[in-house]
Specification:
Structural class: mainly beta
Strand order of the largest sheet: 1-8-3-6
Mean pLDDT: 92
Number of helices: 1
Number of strands: 8
Radius of gyration: 13 Å
Low-confidence stretches: none
Length: 98
């Protein structure tokens, strides 16, 4: 498989349970994929451009010390995250662009 994507930016985000966090995608690039690592505190996420909630059923859970890859321009642009508890989560995101 040939990978035509390149790592464009690495973002360190603080994800709280009081506001939904979205990615910052630089102007003029096409986001192809993101690699997300949750370092501290669990989060919930959605990638359909709808806002997750901290409670059960509010999106996909991702525990601390876990990672996930999300592929596709629409999915990457629609990624939204929120912390599951009152503890802020430190999340690292590598954005790959075409």
């Amino acid at each position: 498989m040939v990978n035509n994507e390149t790592a464009n930016t690495i973002q360190a985000l603080t994800v709280t349970n009081s506001a939904v966090t979205a990615l910052t995608i630089p102007a003029g690039v096409t986001a192809a994929r993101v690699f997300i690592t949750v370092e501290t505190a669990a989060i919930r996420f959605r990638y359909d451009a709808n806002n997750p909630t901290a409670g059960i059923g509010g999106g996909h859970p991702l525990a601390a010390n876990n990672s996930i890859t999300i592929e596709g321009k629409v999915n990457v642009e629609g990624l939204r995250m929120i912390a599951q508890t009152a503890t802020d989560a430190k999340v690292y995101v590598t954005l790959e662009v075409q």
